[in-house]
Every structure is written in C-alpha cells, then in structure tokens.
Amino acid sequence: MDSLISKITSIGAQTLKDIDAASDLPTLEGFRVSVLGKKGSLSEVLKGLGSASPEERPKIGAAANEVKAKVESALEAKREKLEAKELEGKLAKERIDVSIPSRKLHRGALHPITQTTRRMVDIFSRLGFDLMTGPEIETDYFCFEAVNIPADHPARDQQDTFFMGPGLVLRTQTTAIQTRAMRGQKWPIRVLSPGAVYRKDNDATHSPMFHQMEGLWIDKDVKMSDLKGTLEFFAREIFGEATKIRLRPSYFSFVEPGAEVDVSCFKCGGKDAGCKVCKGSGWLEILGAGMVHPKLLELAGYDPKEVSGFAFGIGIDRVAMILNEIPDLRLMFAGDQRFLSQF
Ligand code: PHE
Question: What's the mean per-residue pLDDT of the chain?
Fold first, then answer.
C-alpha cells in the first residue's frame, strides 16, 4: 500500500513542478493529459488498486483524489496566468499608435463655375426669380427664330454655330429659354436660367462651351430703370458694395433697346492703369441686356401695350474669372487638378 501511495504522491509532486515550469498553454495541456487523462500516469497507478486490500483502498483513493485536486487547481491557476500573459502579448503586439500622423484625406471642392453659379442664383432668388432650365441641344426655332434672329443673321453661320442635324443646334445662348418660359404661361414671369451654351470659338477668352445665366422679367410697367436697378443690386452683391455699372447701347435682335453692361473693376476701381483684372480701363463687360422686344411678347400671346419686360444674359464664366482673377478661360475646362484644387 505504501508503495502505491508514495507513487501517487511522487506523481503529484513531479506534476506540480512541471506545471510550475510550463511556459505555454499547449505544454500545460500536455501535462494534464499525461497525468489525469484516461491513459495518464495517475490512472495507470490506480489500475493497481484491485490488488490492494479492502481497508487500504479508501486510503489510496483518498490520496489519489487529493493529488488530483491539487493538480487540477494548480493547472487552473497556471492556465489563468498563461492566458493573461498571452493576452498581454497580443495587446502589446497589436497596439494602435494614436500619435502616428494620419494620411491626409483629399477633400473635393466645387468647380469655380459651380460656386459662382450658386452665388448668382442665390442673389437673384432674393429678388423672386425662379429657376428654369432648357435643353442644350435646342431647336433652331427656340434658339434663333423665336428670338427674332432672321435666317440670314451671321449668328446662324456654320462658322459660329454647331449644327446637330435638321432643325437642331447646340444652343448658342440661354436666350433660347425665354420663349420656352413664356409659351403657354401667363405673366407675370420672373425666371432665371443658368446653363451651358456652345459657339465655334476657342482662345484665351472664348471657349466652344461656356455658361450663361439668362434672366427674364415680364410684368405690367416693367421699365429700363427696373433692369438697371436689378443689375446694380446683383453687381453690388457679387462684386462688393462700391461696384458701379455702366450701360452701353448695343444691339440684340430680341431686345429693344439693348445694352452691353460693364461693372467697375472691383480690384482697382479704375485707379490702376496697370491693373491685371481690367487692364487699366476700370470696367469689365459681363452681360448683355435690354427691354424684351415687342415681337417676343406678341409671339407669347401677350399684348405689348399691356405688359413689358426686361431680359439679361450674364457670362457666368466671366464673373467667375473676375472674382477669382483667373487669367485664361480655358483653365476652367482643362480639368487640371492643380488648378481646381485652389478653389
Ligand atoms: N443672348 C445674348 C448673348 O448671348 C445676351 C443677352 C441676353 C442680351 C438677354 C440681351 C438680353 O450675347
């Protein structure tokens, strides 16, 4: 009996030492199996229990249970330690260094023309203009005929207009929208129409595609002074309080009288002969305007004796160039990231 019990005690003592020395979880599990497993050393020793006397058996059993309990609790304690160590190691390895500078996100920006268009729309909205758009592929009728541009007018020349097919052109002016706005509509009318227009032009100040913002105001007693006041308001809002405007007589077939409108140079106010923005002239041309031609009113079914109106067409790109001091119109359509990221 003594030999069995001493075997059990020595297995226990050796196992506790082994457990203490184990440095990782798989090793620990190996010891558990080799001692407590079905074919483990403790189980093997207990197989000799059959040859012990009935009085001895409980003592041997008690000794075995004691060793088993000690080994189990030692295993458990060691497992906890090793698991904690493993977790620590993992945390140390996977540590996030919050002090590392992050990669810079590229922030997009609106195109200068979009920015300018939105500012302009905002200003005219405050005067009660509603937005209205029209197609860029336009009929010859709306682009020319309905706005009093006769068939032999130079604007209809192959040199100036992109023809898209029988009766279709790329609209050369947002004025094409005027008739669309009036057709079948009762006055008063107050619409604002921004959009792309196309002409066969290409140099530093002309691009085959550019943008205009058309304004049309039809009502009882609309006068030239209303047009001037509206444009003055716009000029001051967009270029600054001190801005003045100047109307020069001009001809557009859809207005009478017609004018080209300049704004005073917001950069030098006309005081710098070497000014890069106005080239020393003190003035910048940005739009065409005038009182709606009676023919257009009649075509819309209005009585020119009863109503009148004004119209204007502003070069959005020109306004954007002036505001941002952009020297070449073509820069705005080249899609060069270095240029665009400045806005
Ligand atoms: N459509 C003219 C142009 O393209 C501008 C304009 C619009 C002039 C409205 C008068 C009235 O030059």
Answer: 91
